[in-house]
Amino acid sequence: xxxxxxxxxxxxxxxxxxxxxxxxxxxxxxxxxxxxxxxxxxxxxxxxxxxxxxxxxxxxxxxxxxxxxxxxxxxxxxxxxxxxxxxxxxxxxxxxxxxxxxxxxxxxxxxxxxxxxxxxxxxxxxxxxxxxxxxxx
Length: 137
Known about the structure:
The chain is mainly α. It has a domain at about 15-85: Orthogonal Bundle (434 Repressor (Amino-terminal Domain)).
């Protein structure tokens, strides 16, 4: 999707804006923050965060830089693989569902005691062996 002038001087957002918004949302969910909490950190309204995440408004370079700093990711994080194209609508929905589930899991994991964390990791390693697990042993 190219940027187009709508006659009123307003420009539509593009596929790139959708990718950036989805990545912002993903980072927020992984951090376990509400839109209001992120809005305070970015010094914008929670409605503005909603608009960024839904690609209804574009993030300025300054706001994007601030978000990268807040989440401790490089600016490139928001643009990785963008040249390959934005995800389709279905892929974006699947990704959002995955992000929500991952965020819920991560939030609970972080609240668990160290002993419970070790037990959960052991259970997952036994149920889903990965090559890295085999090489560590």
